[in-house]
Amino acid sequence: NFAEMEIWGTYTPVTPAYSFCAVGCTAANCLAGNARCSGGLSTAVCTAGGCSTAILNGVAFGYNSATQQCVACSNTQYRTAAGVCQSCPGSCGGRACQVQNSAITAGTTSQAPGTYNRKGANLARDTSPATYSETTAGPNPWWQINMGSTVRVANVQIRNRPDTCGGRLINGNTGCSFGIVAPGSANDREFSLPTQGATIRVSTTPCVSGQPCPGTVCGRITRPSTTGWDYAVTCATPISGSYVSIQLPGTRRILQLANVIVNQDTASPTC
């Protein structure tokens, strides 16, 4: 039973409460000030709420009200909970304190029900856009990372398989029918049935083959991108755990991931 009772976080490019950038939903347009942004990826969404979830490869972005732009916080700034860049405390003596969100670099990966054609789980962490992990077809396939210690997870960045088989992440079947979809096309819609979409969880215990992964839901991906291969899932509030999993619910699914970045959150700047 994949009925979820937790409150899901947001992900790009699909968040019903948000509107897309006025001049193309890209990080360049958002960060250039065409709209306030939250996300920081090529599929960033823009919202009047500012940059409260803006993370890109571990670097925080904050909203500058004077210029109405989302800008990267400097080494002597950190991103506050309100989504703005603020100077490090004087006690830091000019030293860096930007630790609001940072990418987890350590960890071991695994996937189930099996590995297809030697495309192991580690290929989702090799940073190469040309490689991807791939499971064999089966029930409830998952990919997970054991981070080795408990962290507060704020955001998970996912790069999908970059071709027409990318639709497997969302549409609930094993066919190769679409990747990036055209705006207004038949596949530019929600895939929200219990056997569709992808669920991202944070847990203190690992996944078991064939079963729903344990833990708290950070967010769900249920709509294909119209702009790129990247998705960003932001937890409604940071979730503590040592495992992050990505799972496809259903009796016969295939999970393929080109890159996964887990960003942690800390309560306050340190130096």
Q: Could you characterize the architecture of this molecule?
A:
Residues 1-46 and 48-53 have low confidence and may be disordered. The N and C termini lie far apart (45 Å). The longest helix is centred in the first third of the chain and has 8 residues, at 27-34. The protein is 3% helix and 35% strand. The chain is globular and about 55 Å long. Strands 1, 9, 10, 11, 12, 13, 14, 15 and 16 form a 9-stranded antiparallel sheet that branches. Strands 4-5-6 form a 3-stranded antiparallel sheet. It has a two-stranded antiparallel sheet with strand order 2-3. The chain contains 1 helix and 16 strands. By secondary structure, it is mainly beta.
Search tags:
35% strand, nine-stranded antiparallel β-sheet, 1 helix, disordered N terminus, mainly beta, three-stranded antiparallel β-sheet
Share in β-strands: 25-35%
Give the tally of β-strands.
16
- Major beta-sheet overview: 9 strands, antiparallel
Tell me roughly what share of residues is in helical segments.
Answer: under 10%
Number of separate helices = 1
State the order of secondary-structure elements, H for helix, E for strand: EHEEEEEEEEEEEEEEE
By secondary-structure content and strand pairing, the structural class works out as mainly beta
Distance between the termini: 45 Å
Overall geometry comes to globular
Radius of gyration: 18 Å
- What's the pLDDT, averaged over the residues? 78
Q: Which parts are unreliable, with pLDDT below 50 for 5 consecutive residues or more?
A: 1-46, 48-53
